[in-house]
Structures are given as structure tokens and as C-alpha cells.
């Protein structure tokens, strides 16, 4: 079956702009996760959804970052007033339940000029 | 705070060699430990998952061991092939931060030359 998909695969924006990154989880997976991977680093946890609600958003770096999952499936990560330091690969993962293995998407490469 | 370290940061070997990648973590209170593979421009692929009660897991030419008390795991790759070239990431689910959060190391970039 289809895996986790993320769009766009690449996004170039200017400092100060607003961006939205989309994640389509594996069908039927109730848990969804966002991670951020900076160059040369491992992924870092941002936020975790169980169904429609954000069960843990402790990894969001500041209030410019926000994520939603209104129908318990697709999720959107929103970044306001982007900064050059936001440049990274944003990875999405999903799992059948929050006790199961996480399956990762290919990521969105964000470059803020 | 859980910290995960991977050594070496990069490794280059000729095809056919056996090799060992190392992972260490500071908080031994973990649910489990996973090894992932990351290819350029692609997502992460889970290779092996070792539960905290286990000491090792094997899949084909890969063998991962876990010593929870010392905070260490190793990934052994037998008879390496050029197709094994990728970045290998170690990650743990820590009890204190919740099962849902994977804490990753910085990875080992492996290059296997023909």
C-alpha cells in the first residue's frame, strides 16, 4: 500500500514569508508525528497527534510554528514569519497506534533565503 | 534529557568488509531502540527494533545488539555491499519523554566502495 507522502518535496521561500507543509499519513494510522532534521543532524521531534488532537507539542521551537490535523488524517505544519534558521528537512511519520512503529515520509526540504 | 551519540560520524570501507556502527545513550530508561537507514533525498527506513527486554535482533546481514545498562547499542553489518551506502541513524523511545518521541543520534554516513 501507499506510504507516508509529503508535499511539496522542496520549498524555497524568502525570510518573513508564511509556509505550509503537508503530510498524508498511511491510511488508518491514528498517530502522526512531525520531526525536523537540520543539516548534519538527526531528526528532532516537533509534535505528535493522536487523532485530531495534538497530544504533545513540546518540540515546537516557538509560536511561529503550528500544526493541525482537523479530520484525523492529513496534517499541515504551518510556519509564520520564516527565518533562515528554519531551513531544514521536515519529516512526517505515522503509526497505526501510538505504541507501534513509526513509518516516515520522504520529507520536505525547506530553504529560507 | 536523553542524548544519543553515534560514532563514527563517517566511515568508508571497501566492499566485503564487516563493520560495526556504535550508538550510545545517556538515559537507560528506554522502551526500545531502533536503527534506521536514510538515503539522500529519501525518508527513513526502519532496519531493526530492539525492545528493552531484548539483547539483540537480526535481519539478514544486519545484527543489532543492546546493552541497556551501559547505554550502548551496536549495528553489525556483515559482508558490506555498495548498496549499503547510506546514513545510519540510531533512535530511542525514552520512558521519561514518552513512547511517542523518538530521540535520534546524529548518524553515521557509510560509504562502501566497489
Overview of this protein structure:
- By secondary structure, chain A is an all-beta fold.
- Chain A is built from no helices and eleven strands.
- With 114 residues, chain B is mainly β.
- In chain B, strands 2, 4, 5, 9, 10 and 11 form a six-stranded mixed sheet that branches. A five-stranded antiparallel sheet of chain B has the order 1-3-8-7-6, with no helix packed on it.
- The model of chain B has no long low-confidence stretch (mean pLDDT 92).
- Chain B is 0% helix and 59% strand.
- Chain A binds chain B through residues 4, 31, 33, 35, 40-45, 48, 55-56, 59, 91, 93, 98-99, 101-107, and chain B through 4, 34, 36, 41-46, 49, 89, 91, 98-107.
Looking at how many chains there are and whether they match, the oligomeric state comes to heterodimer
N/C terminus separation of chain A: 37 Å
| Beta-strand content estimate of chain A | over 45%
**Total of helices of chain B:** 0
Chain pair with largest interface:
A-B, 25 and 22 residues
Basic shape of chain B: globular
- What is the makeup of the main sheet of chain A? 7 strands, mixed
Radius of gyration of chain A: 13 Å
Number of strands of chain A: 11
Question: Could you provide a short overview of the structure?
Answer:
The complex is a heterodimer of chains A (113) and B (114). Helices cover 0% and strands 49% of the residues of chain A. Chain A has strands at residues 5-7, 10-13, 19-24, 31-37, 44-50, 53-56, 65-68, 75-79, 88-95, 103-104, 108-112.
Tell me the layout of helices and strands.
The complex is a heterodimer of chains A (113) and B (114).
Chain A: E1 5-7, E2 10-13, E3 19-24, E4 31-37, E5 44-50, E6 53-56, E7 65-68, E8 75-79, E9 88-95, E10 103-104, E11 108-112
Parallel strand pairs in A: 2-11
Antiparallel strand pairs in A: 1-3, 3-8, 4-5, 4-9, 5-6, 7-8, 9-10, 9-11
Chain B: E1 4-7, E2 10-14, E3 19-25, E4 30-38, E5 44-51, E6 56-59, E7 62-67, E8 72-77, E9 86-94, E10 102-104, E11 108-113
Parallel strand pairs in B: 2-11
Antiparallel strand pairs in B: 1-3, 3-8, 4-5, 4-9, 6-7, 7-8, 9-10, 9-11
Amino acid at each position: 500500500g501507499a506510504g507516508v507522502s509529503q508535499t511539496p518535496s522542496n520549498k524555497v521561500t524568502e525570510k518573513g514569508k508564511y509556509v505550509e507543509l503537508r503530510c498524508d499519513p498511511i491510511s488508518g494510522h491514528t498517530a502522526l508525528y512531525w520531526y525536523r532534521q537540520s543539516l548534519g543532524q538527526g531528526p528532532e521531534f516537533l509534535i505528535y497527534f493522536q487523532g485530531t488532537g495534538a497530544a504533545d507539542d513540546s518540540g515546537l521551537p516557538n509560536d511561529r510554528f503550528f500544526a493541525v490535523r482537523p479530520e484525523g488524517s492529513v496534517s499541515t505544519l504551518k510556519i509564520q514569519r520564516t527565518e533562515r534558521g528554519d531551513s531544514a528537512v521536515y519529516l512526517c511519520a505515522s503509526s497505526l497506534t501510538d505504541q507501534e512503529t513509526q513509518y516516515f515520509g520522504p520529507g520536505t526540504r525547506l530553504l529560507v533565503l | 534529557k536523553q542524548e544519543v551519540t553515534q560514532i563514527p560520524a563517517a566511515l568508508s570501507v571497501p566492499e566485503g568488509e564487516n563493520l560495526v556502527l556504535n550508538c550510545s545513550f545517556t538515559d537507560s530508561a528506554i522502551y526500545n531502540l531502533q536503527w534506521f537507514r536514510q538515503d539522500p533525498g529519501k525518508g527513513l527506513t526502519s532496519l531493526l527494533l530492539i525492545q528493552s527486554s531484548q539483547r539483540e535482533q537480526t535481519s539478514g546481514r544486519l545484527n543489532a545488539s543492546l546493552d541497556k545498562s551501559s547505554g550502548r547499542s551496536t549495528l553489525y553489518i556483515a559482508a558490506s555491499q555498495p548498496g549499503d551506502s547510506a546514513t545510519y541513524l540510531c533512535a530511542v523511545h525514552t520512558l521519561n519523554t514518552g513512547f511517542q518521541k523518538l530521540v535520534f543520534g546524529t548518524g553515521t554516513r557509510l560509504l562502501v566502495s566497489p
